[in-house]
Design goal:
Layout (H helix, E strand, L loop, with lengths): L2 H16 L14 E7 L4 H15 L4 E7 L13 E4 L20 E5 L5 H9 L4 E5 L10 E3 L7 H16 L6
Parallel strand pairs: 1-2, 1-4, 2-3, 4-5, 5-6
Length: 176
């Protein structure tokens, strides 16, 4: 990737993050669709299966889409339905996804562990009223609820913690 493309991609992303977004309150019971952003790694397929299973336990009728980015060419679809792998062919010249394919979601969960501009575009431009994830310097401008991970963590552990905190917020005795 050229230096100009990288610079413009970062510039366009900063511009998208600078837009003021009105915060909305969404009851947990009304969430119908969630989108999870994950870093593609050697355990991505197993972790994403565990993430889906965990979210289904939290809310059985929840529709879950999982997005990962892989710079090398790979199959477009993951090991199961609604697991999408973005590749360079899915991006324009400055790394913005050409077709974001996310659609309307109620809950965006960013569990990336490294800065990946294509996934950051999805997170920043998503219309999800509830955006949660791991506290990182690159995603904090667009997240509303963040969990600071331990030095060593797993995606499944992070999501378990996220669901735990959301359940605490739902109950009146732990509400702020």
């Amino acid at each position: 990737m050229s230096l100009i493309a990288k610079w413009y991609g970062n510039y366009a992303l900063k511009k998208a993050l600078a837009k003021e977004r009105a915060g909305k309150h969404l009851p947990i019971a009304s969430i119908k669709k969630a989108c999870i952003l994950i870093s593609f790694g050697p355990k991505a397929e197993d972790e994403s299966r565990a993430l889906r299973k965990l979210l289904k336990q939290f809310k059985p009728d929840l529709e879950v889409d999982i997005f990962a980015y892989k710079s090398k060419t790979s199959p477009k679809e993951g090991p199961f339905t609604n697991f999408h792998i973005l590749t360079k062919q899915d991006l324009n010249w400055y790394q913005r996804p050409i077709n974001m394919r996310v659609g309307s979601v109620d809950w965006l969960i960013d569990l990336t562990d490294k800065k990946e501009i294509p996934l950051m575009f999805i997170g920043a431009m998503s219309n999800a009223p509830m955006k949660t994830g791991l506290e990182r310097d690159y995603n904090s401008p667009y997240l509303q609820l963040m969990i600071k991970p331990k030095e060593t963590y797993s995606l499944v552990y992070a999501l378990e913690q996220l669901i735990h905190y959301i359940k605490m917020i739902k109950t009146k005795e732990h509400a702020a």
